[in-house]
Sequence to fold (354 residues):
Amino acid sequence: MPLALFNGSYLGQRPTGIGVVARELVTALDPALVPLLDPTGGERPGSVAIPADLSPEHGRAGHLRRLLWTQQQLPRLLRRSGAPLLLSPLPEAPLGRGLRSVVLAHDLLPLRYPQLSPLLAYHLAYVPLVLHRAVRVLCNSEATAREVHQRLGVPARRLVPIRLGFNPGKLRPLGLERRPFFLVLGRHDPHKNLERVLRAFAGLRQSDHRLAMVGPQDDRYTPRLRRLAVELGIAERCDWTAWVSDQERLELLNRCRGLVMASLWEGFGLPALEGMACGAPVITSTAGALPEVVGDAALQVDPRSVTAIRSAMDELVHSPWLGKDLSERGPARAQRFSWQEAATQVEAVLHSVL
Fold:
């Protein structure tokens, strides 16, 4: 008898963020204990096929289909499987009576930085309701656990911080020569603080460096960022890429002068962990869970200070010894984060609930 059914509806062919967490976590879990609801047509033992058009890759229509499927079809699949629990890698679950769920909370950024959008009601009403009804809420950091408790009032006894991980087969030092470019990984959302990163980059003393902006673009924010790059005179030195493969990501992290993640807030900060795992010198902010993740293996800066971000970038350009030191500290720090350990923690939580 399985412990829980894993909600894989967020999975797609080009996962980012939550999709990567879902993919890696379910891979580490025992398939006999946690079968997967699989939209990708994979070969995981015991998996159950579900529609393939529910992920964020299918835009808002995919999001709406996933929410309807979660309420209408998922309860039926859960009952048919015999699993007493639903395990969801994000705060989405059926709201019907008698259905017990364990969900993973990543952050409350849409509540911290609310934006007028068709998804506002989803973040303001549905997600908090799911978190309150869950029998356990797994939190990807202590910072997220505190925020879920303080902002939403979810009882602390139901919050379980766990450490996420990285895949050492896909993310590792390759011993490649570092090249003159800085790397930014992530969506173009306001909390990513990309305007200040662009201004900091524009002020570098070294003008031969490039800035690689890798992550899903957004019609609300990306055009403004591109215009700012033009105004700052750095447009010709900025490269904008919406998505890269695992192999391309590995090479970028092994080639960059440094990874910059100067966010105003992060519930975890997976790119910072991935950068450390590859030996990339990492610049992070002091906000949210980022200090929990990087410890003393990265340069931490005030995210609201363009001068602080620029100074950290300048240090990596002009102090080779610093980059070498961080390249050595990073992989050692990253070893503290393991998907297998995360899976063991999750399975222990499922056992304890039952």
